[in-house]
Amino acid sequence: MSLVAGLLLPRSTDYPSLGFDILDGLRYSLKRAGQDNARFITENIGFGEDHDLNYARAEKLVLQENVDVMIVYCNAGNAEPLYKLAGIAGKPFIFLDPGMQLPEVAAPPHCYHISLQGIHACRIAGYMAGEQNRKVLMATSFYDGGYRGPWGYTRGLAAAGGTVCGNYVSGYKETEFNIDNYMQLLQHSGAQSVAACFSSYLANLFIKALKERDPSATALPFYCSPFMAEEILLAQCDFPGGTFHAIVPWSTTLQGEEQDVFMQVIRREKNKQANIFHLLGWEAGLLSLHAGKEGASALNGFSYDSPRGTVTIHPATRQTYAPLYKGVIVAGDQGKCALNILEMIPVSASEHEAVLDDKPEQGSGWKNNYLCI
């Protein structure tokens, strides 16, 4: 019997193909496993912050289309209102989650998050920035400041003995974007490293502004958030000089059998390079197949081989954890930014739990699904 998958897909100004790429990753993951006749029914949920709309669209797919599995790109905060529906339907709900918010409640049975571990990556980058008791300048976009990346940084650098000596928060209007305050802090705060938490067009603007300044703007080492080092974005940015470290969940340059198959399939079928959204769809296909054969409960504790390495669904959090990768942003073709992977960072179950359990008292600001602006 052919699988019927329902998808709630948001829109993104900076990543307009996000939904298409997730769907293609899912389609070709299933096709590789012999599911040539799988059916996909999609619903658009805007930027994903309207909980009533999300619920209504998901309920329609469950009741009217009788989908076998629901796949949703969203943050933890936008996933949680759908947990009740998953329990009522008794069908697996798979959430594709950048991992830049912390869950308020544990995911119940039938609900599983494929996480890109964004906060965990920021925490490691923060630790690197704060090593040797360094003073760290926090540079954050107006957008990223509303998620939990900066929290991950502060927890990591504190664990390393570092301290925050200044905070730069960018504006969000392109015509008014500048780094004057950043330059002032750089000169007068005593900073020894920079923790840079940016994404989407604001990362591009920040990198561009650094390049347009004198070399003092990039004199200190930068420790970048994972989505500042996202490769679609980097290919648009001129390298500004300096040293830029990054912790990422995946890269196009990783080596391995699953990675090779994944990259080749997307190139052959879509005539484009695979990206992080294809990866999320690809992994959703692996989970959908396993749940279809063994039942949704079999996903608890399930481990599978992915292009990013061995991924495991933690039986308590029902979120995935997987290796992360240490890299540097360098000058690539035609002077654009490129990501060079240096080494794999194993992630244990206990480390995964520790990151999700370490929560600030104040809630996060933005409700949009991450990267959906």
Rounded mean pLDDT score: 96
Shape: globular
Please, how many domains?
2
Assign the CATH architecture of the largest domain.
Answer: 3-Layer(aba) Sandwich
**Largest pleated sheet:** 7 strands, mixed
Question: What's the name of the CATH homologous superfamily of the largest domain?
Answer: Response regulator
| SSE ordering | EHEHEHHEEHEHEHEHEHEHHEEEEEH
Please name the CATH topology of the largest domain: Rossmann fold
Total number of beta strands: 15
| Main β-sheet, spatial strand arrangement | 7-6-8-9-10-14-15
Number of DSSP helical runs: 12
- Strand content of the residues, in percent? 15-25%
CATH class categorisation of the largest domain? Alpha Beta
End-to-end gap: 38 Å
Helical residues, percent: 25-40%
- Structural class, from helix and strand content? alpha/beta
Low-pLDDT ranges = none
**Overall radius of gyration:** 20 Å
Features:
373 residues; alpha/beta; Rossmann fold; 2 domains; seven-stranded mixed sheet; five-stranded parallel sheet
